[in-house]
Amino acid sequence: MTAYDDLTAHIAEYHDLLCILNTLKWDMRTMMPAAGAASRGRQLATLTTLAKSIFVSEETARLLDAAESEVASADSDSYRARALQQIRDAYEIHRRIPSDLVAQMAALGAESEAVWAKSRTENDFPSFKPYLSQMLALNIELAEAIGYEDHPFDALILQFEPGMTSARLQQIFAELKAGVLPLLERIVAVDQPLAIDLWEAEYDLAAQKKLCRELTALIGFDYERGRLDSAPHPFEISFTRDDVRITTRYDANYLPMSLFAALHEAGHGLYEQNIAPELTRTALTTDFLGQYAVGGASYGAHEFSSRLWENQIGRSRGFWRLHFNRLQRHFPEQFAGTDAESFYRAVNRVRPSLIRVEADEVTYNLHIMLRVEIEMALLEGAVSVDELPEIWNAKMQEYLGLTPPDDRRGVLQDVHWSFGGFGNFPTYTIGNIMAAQVLAAAHAQMPDLAAKLADGDYQALLTWLSENIYRHGRAYSPDELLTRVSGEELNTAPLLDYLEHKYSDLYGLR
Amino acid sequence: MTAYDDLTAHIAEYHDLLCILNTLKWDMRTMMPAAGAASRGRQLATLTTLAKSIFVSEETARLLDAAESEVASADSDSYRARALQQIRDAYEIHRRIPSDLVAQMAALGAESEAVWAKSRTENDFPSFKPYLSQMLALNIELAEAIGYEDHPFDALILQFEPGMTSARLQQIFAELKAGVLPLLERIVAVDQPLAIDLWEAEYDLAAQKKLCRELTALIGFDYERGRLDSAPHPFEISFTRDDVRITTRYDANYLPMSLFAALHEAGHGLYEQNIAPELTRTALTTDFLGQYAVGGASYGAHEFSSRLWENQIGRSRGFWRLHFNRLQRHFPEQFAGTDAESFYRAVNRVRPSLIRVEADEVTYNLHIMLRVEIEMALLEGAVSVDELPEIWNAKMQEYLGLTPPDDRRGVLQDVHWSFGGFGNFPTYTIGNIMAAQVLAAAHAQMPDLAAKLADGDYQALLTWLSENIYRHGRAYSPDELLTRVSGEELNTAPLLDYLEHKYSDLYGLR
Questions:
Q1: Over chain B, what is the mean pLDDT?
Q2: For residue A22, with 0-12 CB atoms within 10 Å meaning exposed, 13-18 middle and 19 or more buried, which class applies?
Q3: Which of A13, A27, A239 minimises the CB distance to B36?
Q4: What is the pLDDT of residues A32-57, one digit of tens each?
Q5: Rounded CA gap, A200 and B22, in Å?
């Protein structure tokens, strides 16, 4: 297998460079003194360009051709065949994207993100508009370069979510709306403000950090192969499965901020830490299009793991029944007058709100649909950038019954469009759907899973997830993985069942 | 200046890669979970090889040739001319070193360092011997490849200390011995154990860290462009002047450990932070032979700055007269029964000791001479690896009047030889000599410097050092810099004067 081995060695070195880029990004967001930003920017640019030139080189083409001839007869489901397929697909797409366009997007993205940040602070959409228009035009160019059959959005989402299309998304959204909007209406009709405000207290940051570490270790995050740090925008990033870094953020007056962000990022981390060791430094832990060392099947699949551990485990009644005493141990005064059930209810309160990142499980996907529908309309030219605030506010009213008082809390709230991340928003909703579908499958295959979770034994679930999902890295698509565990491709029914069941109970809707 | 600019852009990208390597090394020593070591090793190897291939490429040769023709008429002292000279010198040397030899040294070094660590712990020199013999043979090969006129040591020291030779070192050592040995004898004759042991207390680590930060900020380390972390072996490293990281180590029962290591590393950091901004990402902040982004004129010159701030400022009576109250503020109970003068005396006690890194200012250079004399003898074949423990112990007896009870506290104590760092030890002594010479020159040029230092105004000294030394990066050799400020090349007299003056006073020898 000489040719395949040669290609593998070549990809391993390319993968090393992507792990190094990840290290630079982690450092930039957690450790770097502010004045280091300009130098770091140049270092990132130099290494990104170098990595790309190595991937799109004639050498890759030569090694790939040779390896393909050698492996032609291999089982198409084998890791080998999948690795070759991914390298080939990415290589062809990379070659279709003019390097001029990449450079233009990178240059505009850096400027545009800074303009966006300022315009959000100053609630000044008009000054962001020209940048957004340019970024939209470049994304349309990118979509044309990548190519698509039906809708330009299909080309863009391909970067994050193989197998997903605008047509499928529209079907998914219709199903979700049909289930979620009536549920939300029933909840809003009976929702009452909490009797006491659990969060009117100070929570020592060092104690918060200890608690975050305890809870993430409890669900299986391996601190021998990872770290927890703080970052203004929490994230997870890895430099192989043996070095996985998670972050959270701390609010001295609001404990759930750090706890649930830590559980969320640990959920991402569990995916990376449990990829099969033999996939380390291979195509199956490489996102070639994003030039990013990451092992999940897709961005949505990665989000499945974070949301499963954050929400379906971390926001469950059973979890807090078992672990509320930890809160009391770290914060005896703050939690003296309350109990596990009150805490469970407080961290699951459903309320239509303006800001996506603060949304609850029921309303969250409505925020995503709104964005994706707008993105699609922008890409097909049905809506202009000028009309954005208006259409945003109309959809907010339609889905959530709220009208943002200003663009800061409306169309300007997310960073994504400023740097050109078109096509990325659906991955959050795909993650939510997949989490419910996978957990339902796990319960179906392991009749004693509920009892184990109720006892605080998370290892059984982690092992099952590792064997069925995590270990394969990027070898199989989300639909393939879902079909293996549940017999079906991505399906909204389990998520709608989960929401109906949990919130009917919580709000006494039955 | 097209050709020169093209070369400059090429070197800037090479420099970015070296800054990235530094970031990976910093992370490895301060943040990385232990399990990440194997992946990190591969990442370092991949990027080191890639960087080298970029530097020794035909492209570098072509750009360098063109730039040299263009700049031929430039002033030979200009930054431009110096940059070209350094690139040319390094390029020629790099091409003389077979890449096989580099790979062999790297592979053996990693293994050998692990064997050394084990053999030191187990006091087992015989098991380290074969590795050291191989490493010595490879260093002799390296010296032959680099080339030398007089002694193989001259080729090896060239990597760290341009302009230094074995002949000059022997002269320097003779002068130091003639001054230091009689002084040490006089001190030992009158030295008394301290009346009280200052360190029989607990020093809270968080308070130690605050104090280290305060003291390093006081001498001018800029935390807007730097950080302080903890590391088992303290070091300084930078990724341009705008991101300079220092480390220290903490001992709960011995406060001077963290304080003086922090001042030492901050001294290194001050050098980097005060290099002229226009030298950022240029040949004049690049050690091409070591493939290391570092801005000092030489390794000895870097050590001059660390030792000046650690010892000549940080261990001075005036420094503690002013700042002893800070110790008392952080550790009120521990320092209740003592005063600044006692502290000053305690941290300057002179005693012959077995371990280099714990040695005082008077005995320190004797430890270095011993090592360098042995290295030279090994390289010329006058001494064999078998004879090492014997010759080590004999020299310890001759210079320090002590015989190590075992090899662990003798010939096995330093890591340097295990990974092949032959030629590096003299830089510590060169730093000590240069520190005294530069500070004497500063006092001569600024009659009010003593008064300013006595008032705790360190900015005047920092500004003078920046203007005269730091700002030039690697543009001028240590001898050139010293000649500019003192009228003389490296000269042992100021160091001997400083030691004589300080310790005669401290020990009442007059």
A1: 95
A2: buried
A3: A239
A4: 998 999 999 999 999 999 999 999 99
A5: 45
- Please report which confidence band the pLDDT of residue A510 belongs to, taking 50, 70 and 90 as the band edges: confident
Element containing residue A453 per DSSP (H, E):
helix A449-454
With a pLDDT cut of 70, the percent of chain B lying above it is: 99
A135 near A417, Cβ under 8 Å? Answer: yes
Q: In this structure, are residues B247 and B228 in contact, taking their beta carbons and an 8 Å threshold?
A: yes
> Buried b vs exposed e over B92-123: b needs ≥16 C-beta within 10 Å?
ebbeebeeeebebbeebbeebbebbeebbeee
Q: What tokens were used for B342?
A: 């006692």
A74 has a pLDDT exceeding 90? no
Helices (H), B158-254: 166-190, 205-218
Q: Indicate the SS3 state at residue B405.
A: coil
Interface of A with B (CB under 8 A): 12-13, 16-17, 19-20, 23-24, 27, 31-36, 38-40, 42-43, 46-47, 50, 223-227, 239-240, 242-243, 280-281
Average pLDDT for residues B230-249, to the nearest whole number? 96
Q: Which residues of B touch A224 (CB under 8 A)?
A: 33-35
Examine the pLDDT at A195 and tell me if it is beyond 70.
no
Of the residues B21, B22, B23, B49, the best mutation for testing chain A's interface (the one with the most A CB atoms within 10 Å of its CB) is B23
Contacts of A510 (CB under 8 A, 6+ apart): A504
CB contact under 8 A, B24 and A23: yes
**B386 contact partners, CB below 8 Å, separation of at least 6:** B129
Catalytic residues of A: 265
Q: Report phi then psi at B245, rounded to 5.
A: -110, 130
Task: State yes or no: pLDDT of A319 exceeds 80.
Answer: yes
CA dihedral B184, B189, B191, B192 (to 10 degrees): 160
Is the whole-model pTM more than 0.80? yes
Please give the DSSP secondary-structure letter assigned to residue A245. E
Q: Which two tokens stand for residue A34?
A: 């502010």
Identify the residue whose tokens are 């096995």.
B412
Q: What is the pLDDT of residue A413?
A: 94
pLDDT (average), residues B456-485:
98
Query: Any idea how long chain B is?
Result: 510
Identify the closest residue of chain A to B227 by CA–CA distance.
A33
B330-347 average pLDDT score? 93
> Amino acid identity of B59?
E
Q: State the pLDDT at residue B196.
A: 64
CA atoms of B24 and B230, how far apart (whole Å): 16
Q: Are A33 and B223 in contact (CB < 8 Å)? A: yes
Cβ neighbour number for residue B134 with a 10 Å cutoff = 17
- CA pair distance A271, A299, nearest whole angstrom: 12
Give, as one character, the DSSP assignment of residue A318. H
Mean pLDDT within A243-272: 97
Q: Considering only the C-alpha atoms of chain B, give the largest distance between any 2 of them, rounded to a whole number of Å.
A: 70
Q: Which residues contact A39 (CB under 8 A, 6 or more apart)?
A: B19, B239, B240, B242, B243, B280, B281
3-state DSSP assignment of residue B231: coil
Q: B291 Cβ partners below 8 Å, 6+ apart?
A: B18, B21, B48, B51, B52, B55
Amino acid at A288: F
Q: How far apart are CA B492 and CA B71, in angstroms?
A: 37
CA geometry: angle B213, B215, B220, nearest 5 deg? 95
Helices vs. strands in chain B: H and E counts, helices first: 21, 5
For the beta sheet containing B226-230, the strands, ordered from the edge strand earlier in sequence to the opposite edge, are B226-230, B244-248, B236-238
The chain A residue lying nearest B22, using CA atoms, is A24
DSSP assignment letter at B290: T
For residue A50, list chain B residues with Cβ-Cβ distance below 8 A: 13, 17, 50
State the count of interchain CB pairs (< 8 A) between A and B.
101
**pLDDT tens, residue by residue, B69-95:** 998 888 999 999 999 999 999 999 999
